[in-house]
Design a protein that fits this description.
Immunoglobulin-like; about 20% helix; Velvet_dom_sf
Length: about 270
Amino acid sequence: MNLQSQRPKNDRTYEFVVVSQPKTGCAFGDQPLSRIPISPPLVARLRIFDHEGVEVTAGDDMPFFTCQVSLLTEDGRSADLVVPRSIPTPIEDEAPAETPSSKRRATGRMSSGRGSSGTSGQTPNASGSQRTVSQSASTSASIESSAGQGLMSSFTLPTRMLAGDRPAHADIYFDENKQRRLLFIFPEISVRLVGKFRFQLNLTRLPSSSSNAPVPSFAFASTVTDVVTVVERNDFVASAPDGIVSALAAQGFDFPMLNSKTLIES
């Protein structure tokens, strides 16, 4: 797990810890209204340390913390958008324009009874057909190669890969050990296409009207999850809630993932 922290002007250090690691997801394709959230849901804990390394509470800053989630490929490249790839259309060979001299030559051949002109006349069409098949084969190979990475589809415009509540705000809950934790919870994130991905979390701070202190443009903390495998709907099996997810559900937090079995069967 990749953890990074920054030290803003208040001399505090921030650290992300993923306490609920997603393992699998259900690709929703072009059906966002029937999508199923990743399982288990993504939950991250924020830890704050003072300049002496002592863990402290968020205090008055807590309402202004926000966490943004983005999608990465398995090897760490941005995968937030599906960018359509244009497929080349084969161009058939155009017949050469006839000239008076060529007409005379053709008339002469026909009157002499030579039958080879029919065969030679078909040759350009045959070679054009071969080129068309070759182009189609190379295009299919390109699509299959991209589809293997989970980043290719038939969308005609750039389309977002993630659906759900991408930004989250901090809140305090008890974990499975009855300890108070400052958590960012993403209960209904879904991924559009099949593939292997990672989620990146970035902590930022919203400006406060009661403070004139400048808000840093960089992320206070950042972390990247383990690899999440997104599969087709028929292959998706949701994980049984346990650990901190069970603890949060017992405190009344609503996880749509817990109803995913009903969604799959409907």
